[in-house]
Amino acid sequence: MDRLVIRGGNQLKGSVQIHGAKNAALPQIAAALLAAEPLELGNVPDLLDVTTMLGLMQELGVTAERETGGSLLLDPRGARNAQAPYEIVRRMRASILVLGPLVARFGSARVSLPGGCAIGARPVDLHLKALTALGARVEVDAGYITAETNGRRLRGGRIILTSPSVGATETAMMAAALAQGETEIVNAARDPEVCDLALCLTAMGAAIEGAGTHRIQIEGVDSLHRARHDLIADRIEAGTYAIAAAITGGQLELIDAHLEHLAAVGAVLEHAGAQIWPTDRGLMVSRTGPLRAVDVVTEPYPGFPTDLQAQFMALMAVAPGASVIRETIFESRFMHVPELGRLGANIVLQGTTALVRGAAKLHGAEVMATDLRASVGLVLAGLVAEGETVVHRIYHLDRGYEALDRKLVQCGADIRRVAQ
Ligand code: UD1
User: Fold this and answer.
1) Percent of the chain with pLDDT over 70
2) Is 3-19+233-418 a CATH 3.65.10.10 domain?
3) What residue segments make up the domains of the chain, in order of their start?
4) Distance 166 CA to ligand 1 centre (A)
5) Tens of pLDDT along 381-404?
6) 163 lines ligand 1 (CB under 6 A)
7) Which atom from ligand 1 is nearest to the alpha carbon of 126?
8) Would the CB of 122 count as within 6 Å of ligand 1?
9) How far apart are CA 320 and CA 215, in angstroms?
């Protein structure tokens, strides 16, 4: 297993190309199952999670081909209603996203209950309720979800999400695209990735209104067709590099990043002492003055994203003063706390709240990556820790960050990947 060896202390300067959004790619790859004709996706990042999703699609008879220029051509002409096996689904929770398309297109589906990042219970009940509201009979047995329509088409319905789950909104939208009649999703997630999926489905011939608001309406169509769609930039990758600039007191231009997708993050980083402004190519993040401690609560979009909580905690670990960070999306997403402690961070956990007292200095140590975002939080801390930080189990990083070490080196970081 590879590890990263980081020598802290370098300011980051330069530009970073932000890749297409992982969380836009995964549902849109699953959406290829909805049509009998190919779907071409542009700006698809080269990530382990994408490879895992393509492996699952192959299991379901959808072939994928990388074209010159980075586009991905998904061909569902051989698609069949096979089972989505535990062996693949356990590696990535987002595998659940094939359930809605399979049942909408084939009238039945069998998908293993997902695994993925170990950051809390993460149930899938809202996905299942959404499909039930569209007329599917859903059962969970022996670790598998089965959904059936008894040979009929799904029918439009009213789906009320008790919390605005991103994945459940996407499952509902994809299934409803092929249902008979109109569907309304109430309390839908408003994330940019939900809007991007709606754009992709619309290009395929779906009729969707209201994506980006709490209420999405879908008029089902008989079939979807060939389409091409370019993915939006990854706001979590962009936010991570923004924090990298802030923590090292450097300046980075994030090419293709959109400030409007990072409004809450930008505001928090400015309170913390950074400056952020749009440029012709994306946005610039810089910090010249001292860091300040700021409190943060993670919230559904457009609030501060849970996927940047670990990275922000690394920043607060070196900000003078005390910061309270409350996690409201995933109840046990604090596995980075003891690891940051090994670097000298002073963090006290109480339930879903962390009290971070900024340390004058962090010190390099060996740490263990536990999930995707937690591990990149450790890398950010390593960038300012004195001496050498070794991050083990970095396959978690490869799930969501394309060429992280190379991009950081280009901006002046002293970091190398060592094969075990
Ligand atoms: C997506 C993102 C993930 C991000 C998360 C929150 C993808 C591939 N992943 O995950 O990076 O951290 O949004 O922004 O897009 N919940 C239920 N029942 C359900 C579904 C969710 O109770 O059926 C709960 C979850 O346990 C969690 C909350 O709802 O507490 C939010 O989860 P959700 O928005 O569904 O996250 P994901 O779609 O899994």
Assistant:
1) 98
2) yes
3) 3-19+233-418, 22-230
4) 6
5) 999 999 999 999 888 898 999 999
6) yes
7) 23
8) yes
9) 42
